[in-house]
Amino acid sequence: DSAEHKIHLFENAGYAGRKMEIVDDDVPSLWAHGFQDRVASAKALNGTWVGYEYPGYRGRQYVFEKGEYRHWNEWDANQPLIQSVRRVRDQQWHQRGAFENS
User: Fold this and answer.
1) pLDDT tens, 49-101?
2) Domains of the chain, start order
């Protein structure tokens, strides 16, 4: 995994419709960032990501390693529904890992 993360989420299969680009950030709610919950295709350009069925990183989890996913059945979903996204981070690159001290 790299120190940089970037993913593109698309509303429709085949990379069509509205697009959301996420760079080096976790997104607990796509709605809060102006995107809907329908994600039917994705391109993981850098890093590894986990998409979650519900906001707040809850529900079914889908792993997006670097690559292209033309249709939601390519990440083994039973519907095109993702509502939150989180980066997979390695302590080699991120000294605090996935959690911050409070």
Assistant:
1) 999 999 999 999 999 999 999 999 999 999 999 999 999 876 655 555 555 54
2) 6-88 (2.60.20.10)
Residue 75, phi then psi, degrees to nearest 5 = -110, 20
Q: Which residues fall within 8 angstroms of residue 82, CB to CB, at 6 or more apart?
A: 9, 30, 37, 39, 51, 52, 53, 62
Percentages of the chain per state (helix, strand, coil), in multiples of 5: 5, 45, 50
Compute the distance between CA of residue 102 and CA of residue 82 in angstroms, rounded to an integer. 28
pLDDT single digits (tens) 31-51? 998 898 899 999 999 999 999
Q: What is the rounded distance in angstroms from the CA atom of residue 33 to the CA atom of residue 20?
A: 9
Residue 102, pLDDT > 90, answer no
